[in-house]
Amino acid sequence: MQPSKTTQQGPLDREVRFALVSDLDWTMVDHNDHTHDKLLRLNHVWNTDLSHDSLLVYSTGRSPHLYEELAAEVPLLVPDILVCSVGTEILFQGVPHKPWSDFLDRGWDREKTLEIAQAEPALTLQDASEQRPHKISFKELTAKLKQAGLEVNVIYSAGVDLDLLPAAASKGKALAFLLEEMDGGAGRPRDGVLVAGDSGNDIELFAVAGVHGCMVANAHPELRAWCDAHASSTLFQASEDGPGGIFQALEHFEFVEHAEPRPAGVAVRRAVVGMTTAAAELFCGIAPQPLTDTVARLGEFLSDGFFYKHEGVECGKQEYLDYLGGPGYGGMAQVAAGRGEWREWLGAIVVREGVANTWKVEAVERVQPFKAGDHTGDVRRTYRVCMELQEAEPGRWLVSRQVYETLKPGEAYNSVPAA
């Protein structure tokens, strides 16, 4: 039985070169990397070289509720598509994709499946937030389900979690559904799809026809055994954990675009990311010494007529640089006060061509301290940033205007600037 087609507008309606489909916990997010430096490096590459013509898809066993908790605590980019609850829920910018849920409803008897599973004394239900319309989750039965005439997909992950899903549901089947929808619209990513994972519930992602796979170095035995049994030139076994392994796979399969000359939109993105990175090094107290070098590097991204505005404060280029390089902003006093634990990232970025050889950029910028064992989402600072860039010379773009808007704590931290 094939899923019905849909005319819903969304991220599948544009032609893309590449798609990254990644699990979250211990794959995109290495919970042992408390500074998240590897994830921030991957974010940088995505924002500069990939996001303009690629799709970012998170495929996680987490429910939407637990995804929101994770997104508030680690420096995740905003995905184009979110696949939750082991493939049973697909969301486009937070909105459930109804054709997928309608497809899973066919032949799924949740009540009867739960009744049979609860009769097993060795099984313990996971938290209520993890029980979803098309997913029943246990800690730790296939024959009894079949005897009852139920077609159920039983997925065992990380040695402890057992999920009961409709037979038509899994991370892999959700990806296959999305690829079929692409076939009926703008087409599949022309350079390919890379999937990345670490546990048993990622196996079906790797089994989707035509994809490239990245098994991160910290993978669980069930995924490692599958990859060993299905070794091929399109399956990469990384030597680094989590996002470090994904970065290795992007380079191994040459998905990171190095073509020259770069499209103007890519050059604009690189200028924006370069400027925000230099400013963030000053704010976060991680700028290399001497600080004047970072201030000078930042100045190279700003036009002579640069204008800055934030919360009623307005200034020009030199005043802005003097402030950023001053002891009250990025000096060693801030580092001594713990500022060196803060990190900055652009969670989302949209670039549009303007008039008279200008480009307009809208981004969501976030800064947050990361410390081992601490939950710091409540002190995250989130800004909506609007910029205008002008071409100083071929391929070199300068920021002429930058306006910040501070968002309330927790407000729209998964929002994407309007397209």
UniProtKB/TrEMBL annotation:
Species assigned in the record: Auxenochlorella protothecoides (Green microalga)
Keywords (A to Z) from UniProt: Hydrolase, Magnesium
Record's catalysed reaction(s): sucrose 6(F)-phosphate + H2O = sucrose + phosphate
Entry cofactors: Mg(2+)
Top-level EC class as recorded in UniProt: hydrolase
Residue span(s) of domain Sucrose phosphatase-like: 18-254
Protein name: Sucrose-phosphatase
Summary of subunit composition and partner proteins: Homodimer.
Purpose of the protein: Catalyzes the final step of sucrose synthesis.
SUPFAM superfamilies associated with the record: HAD-like
Pfam families in the record: S6PP (PF05116)
Protein's GO biological process: sucrose biosynthetic process
One GO MF term: sucrose-phosphate phosphatase activity
Keyword Magnesium: yes
Alphabetized InterPro entries for the sequence: HAD-like_sf, HAD-SF_hydro_IIB, HAD_sf, SPP-like_dom, Sucrose_Phosphatase, Sucrose_phosphatase_pln/cyn
